[in-house]
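Q: What structure does this chain adopt?
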Amino acid sequence: MKLDAILWDYDGTLVNSVPKNIAITKDIISVVAPHLSGENLPKYLLSETLYHEANHGAKNWQALYVDYYGLSHDEMLIAGGMWAEHQEQNQTPVALFEGMETVISQFAHLPHGVCSQNSQLNIRTVLDSYGIGEVFKAVVGYDDVSNGNQKPHPFGGMKCVENIFGEAHSKELCLMYIGDHEADTQFARNIEVALGKNAKVIAVAAGYSRSEPENWQTKPDYIANSVDELSMIIGKYV
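A:
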């Protein structure tokens, strides 16, 4: 099998956005659930280590806000609607993981896409700042997918694939999806099913971002424990 495209998660996969995500979450909680701010701030927002524990423990962002941060269901829904705006406004710097530019450049002959729960504008701004925006033929963010169709539902992945290839169902496509969360592996499996029997989606876990794919119930095809390992894994299919 030869790859037709590489699809990426964004946070924790392409970029280390933890400091910015913590800052944004604190801002949103102060508005939506002020009783959980200040001295009552959830412990999972007190350090990057605890943030990683919650982020990789929750099955999706909704569960993260309810089960780990303590928001009610209604507060979570309001918070989700504020996310894109706050991501675009917050100026906390975000950096690509070290070595990521090299990986993207090495495989720039392939179309790349991003399927993320970050803001499309925010993602595009960061990719363009590194001079690699043109490699990414499609970016599907939180604001492009309805609340009920967020990952691991395949809707965003199908939209990303269709933005690259046009009508994608039943095409003979070999894709790779790289993400740092168990939901990303489930997402890859669901995209494969949605594409049809002629397609293959290879799931790669970004173990370099403190995730623990070995403990996931839904197992990826590969685990990249360093950014350099991504080059070797992708290279198998080029």
